[in-house]
Design brief:
10 helices; elongated; mainly alpha
């Protein structure tokens, strides 16, 4: 029962984050910045990848034997190669973007994410957060930590790829694992802002793995839905800040309003 309770508690964090953003209008300027930055980044990467696909040829045949028959066969095989480039390449790009959107977005938008998290925390606690480190250093810590989390996520997801060979159960397990790392990546923003060490982060989330898995799972589902995908980062950071305040024991009656 605790698993289901904690899992669905984590699933509620993005919605609680949305209510928090609505209640804290000053946070919106910080929320829009990472959103725009991530859209521009992925649009540029996707366009560059499509351009590379259009330039790359898997094969090219220029047969002269059998007269017109050989030329016709070569022409159709070349056309099939062009079709396969997009048939395989576009889904690979889409899947890659799906599983890295949140983590990569945090690296690129680290300065804005820190500001958004700080505004959300101020609204939750009723006081301005005390900066444990200078803002520039906080941003640098966030970038390094997010990069480290992304590398760890990629390592484990690649290592567990064989799970996808197991119908249903394997797919579900792989999705939950990715959900856990996505939730951990989102929570990393407020933890890094308070200069928590890597060991402190892991110790803090050890008892909340199920909550983080639910949090990250719903974040992945939101990313798959048109329009809501673009709101993933601000909603995720707001939800992660709520979870941080609960972990740190800094919540007050304001938290009940979100």
């Amino acid at each position: 029962m605790h698993f289901y309770r904690d899992y669905f508690s984590g699933c509620l964090l993005p919605w609680r984050g949305a209510r928090l953003l609505l209640a804290a209008p000053h946070a919106w300027r910080w929320a829009l910045a990472p959103l725009v930055a991530n859209i521009i980044l992925y649009a540029a990467l996707f366009a560059a990848a499509l351009w590379l696909l259009s330039r790359y040829e898997w094969w090219h045949f220029d047969w002269q034997f059998w007269g017109g028959c050989g030329a016709w066969l070569a022409e159709n095989l070349n056309a099939a190669g062009k079709f396969l480039r997009y048939l395989v390449g576009v889904p690979v790009l889409a899947v890659g973007g799906y599983f890295t959107f949140a983590a990569v977005g945090q690296i690129v938008a680290a300065p804005f994410i820190d500001g958004l998290s700080e505004k959300c925390e101020a609204h939750l606690t009723g006081r301005a957060p005390v900066a444990d480190v200078a803002f520039a250093r906080s941003v640098w810590i966030s970038v390094i930590s997010a990069t480290r989390m992304l590398a760890r996520q990629i390592f484990w997801l690649v290592l567990t790829l064989p799970l996808l060979l197991v119908p249903v159960v394997g797919h579900a397990a792989w999705f939950l694992l990715n959900g856990y790392f996505t939730g951990l990546g989102l929570l990393d923003a407020p933890l890094s802002r308070h200069n928590w060490t890597y060991a402190e982060k892991i110790a803090a989330v050890r008892a909340r793995k199920t909550v983080l898995t639910g949090f990250g799972s719903l974040a992945l589902i939101l990313f798959a839905v048109p329009l809501t995908a673009f709101l993933l980062l601000p909603l995720g950071v707001a939800g992660a800040t709520i979870l941080y305040v609960e972990i740190a024991g800094e919540g007050n009656s304001e938290e009940g309003k979100v």
